[in-house]
Amino acid sequence: MIERPRGTRDLFPEEMEIRNTVEGILRNVVESYGYREIMTPTFEHTDLFLKKSGPSIIEEIYAFKDKGDRDIALRPEFTASVMRMYHEGMREVPKPIKLYYIGSVFRYERPQSGRYREFWHFGTELIGPNTPQADAENISLAYDCVSKTGLKGFEMRISNLMILSTYLEEQGVPEGEKDEIFHLIDKEEEEELMKYPFGDDLISFMDSDLEDFKEYLKDTSPVDYLTSVLDGLKYYGIDEDDYSIDLSTVRGLDYYQGVVFEIDAPNLGAEKQICGGGDYKLGSIFGTDVTAKGFAFGFDRLVLALGEENISPVSDGPRCYMIPIGEEAKGYAFEVLSMLRDDSITVDLELMDRTIGKALSYADKMGFDIAFLVGENEVKDGIVTVKNMKTGEQTQVSKEDLVKYLCEYDKI
Ligand code: HAM
User: Fold this and answer.
1) ω into residue 96 within 30 of 0, thus cis?
2) Sequence-separated (6 or more) residues with CB below 8 Å from residue 204
3) Residues 35-62: pLDDT tens digits?
4) C-beta contacts of 393-398 below 8 A and 24+ residues apart
5) What is the 296 CA–ligand 1 centroid distance (Å)?
């Protein structure tokens, strides 16, 4: 038997229903902030990802030669593609430009629970503005997205990469060697960090509170900038209790430069990070100095985290099953069926000519909320017999009142 490739998943109807509802919630939130949807190609020239991240990225992505001998890679994320798209077709658009996307991305990783080779990003990019308020809005948007899904157990960490960068500069670390130290911090390699002459000092610097950062720095402007961003967050109802300041939040990707943040759902265990983002610069690949801010949710992990809290959002409204009884009732049953479907009420039809008993048992197994029984009497009286599949109760409702009845129906 041919099985699905490692690190991929089949998504069953029940999962898709939940995913679509969560997606709808996220779309509503970002659209309410003025973001508009875009899409970029699933594959790009490999160079797009090599330019900023260097040759080592090849190990982590799906890269191959196409039939025309071109180097092609499946997108491992959207941010670089969105920047390419901006430089190819949006440079004249007045800023700020607010874009969002949802789609699958591909990374050649070692699969485990919550870590896949094909997964989905729901993300945003805010191109142009370079103010603390823009950083605050970027962070609050991500925060708002998680809150609106109903997830309770999540934690947000915020940092400004410029604080660490300034510290390292003042310790005499050359620009080219900073990345190595950032990498060690990202991987929590404390022993390796201690090999630097300032190792001890660096660790206690990172462990200290926002108010104390300034004691370690000559140039304190990055701390002031972060403070302004946090002040900005208050306008969105996000205060100190809702996040922690954590200088070890350095982000894995190479393009971030300023304020960054991550959101964790601790109940997911090892792969608990559900969102990451911040301020970044990718313009240099295209010869501009445009800056942007954004974030991406690991959409699959967000849905997993909701599942861990037993939150399974699905669209409102009952799922109904129509059982016509006898040939004479068919015309009337179809009238009712199309009337309901025109009103966007979900109605499935018995297609296998089963007996009422068997059709009802199918409706029961499939978790329908309501079954409609339509026979000779119903046709004669212009009514529908409505069977509540959870309680077994039956009521008769006139055809005219049926839509209203179903709209007011409370799922149990
Ligand atoms: P990222 O942190 O690499 O950021 O990915 C975003 C999210 O994708 C992560 O926080 C995590 O939830 C999820 N994720 C990462 N790898 C996997 C995996 N193998 N399986 C399942 N989920 C995964 C970015 O990609 C940036 N482009 C975000 C951004 C947008 N920054 C600015 N704008």
Assistant:
1) yes
2) none
3) 999 999 999 999 999 988 888 899 999 9
4) none
5) 6
